[in-house]
């Protein structure tokens, strides 16, 4: 009886579409061939066969890398994207920040004090206005015609 080795982690197994290649590999190789082969025939007469073949290989190499290279289950474009994010887009120094409970309590205490000061300042201002108005409008005040006779 024939034995077939079965990998333990089946998530790494990829379905083959044609010629024992995955769909990703077929698309990348086709794109590379569509660009590289015409380039070879265009450069063969002016530069010679060896230079044209080297140019064709250099042009097709990125397509080959996109099709074949994979690290930790990520294809090349995701790896390059992550490298660009780390090196260019995100800041180099990221300060360590925590949500300090004591700092939160301190801020809350300062806010409570500020609210208390605002409320009591308004009460003092209102009380002084009442005192000023009481002196003008009451019987014992400065306005003699509004005063009640005794």
Automatic annotation (TrEMBL):
Sequence ranges of Basic and acidic residues compositional bias: 129-150
Protein name, entry field: PrgI family protein
InterPro entries for this protein: Uncharacterised_PrgI
A Pfam entry, by short name: PrgI
Membrane-traversing stretches: 26-44, 50-69
Region (Disordered): 127-150
Alphabetical keyword list: Membrane, Transmembrane, Transmembrane helix
Organism phylogeny: Bacteria, Bacillati, Bacillota, Clostridia, Eubacteriales
